[in-house]
Amino acid sequence: MIAQVVDEANVPSLKCTEVNEESENNNEQKAALAEIKQRNEDLLLLEEAVAKVNALHEHLNFIVHVQNAVTDRIDKNISEAAEYSEMTAKHLDEALRLKYEEREVDEFVKS
């Protein structure tokens, strides 16, 4: 009689309920596993991206270091060129002065 009432009420049996719960748990586990795999892939991609950024940083650091030495050399060369220009101007002034003095002496001797 109870079995008839249960069958007529369409109440699932305990065995059926357990299978459904296991199926739901299995689906949840599969979903969780899929999410974990996706996160793992994302982390691997992130790790690869960070490694690339690190390599770029090291390369840029090297370039800056090399360029700093070149910049220092350029600065030194500019300073030396300015000093040489000043010395050249002084030497030209001295050469012109000596040239005029020589002309004066030549004119004096000729007269």
Automatic annotation (TrEMBL):
<feature type="coiled-coil region">
    <location>
        <begin position="19"/>
        <end position="46"/>
    </location>
</feature>
<dbReference type="InterPro" id="IPR000727">
    <property type="entry name" value="T_SNARE_dom"/>
</dbReference>
<protein>
    <recommendedName>
        <fullName>t-SNARE coiled-coil homology domain-containing protein</fullName>
    </recommendedName>
</protein>
<keyword id="KW-0175">Coiled coil</keyword>
<feature type="domain" description="T-SNARE coiled-coil homology">
    <location>
        <begin position="33"/>
        <end position="95"/>
    </location>
</feature>
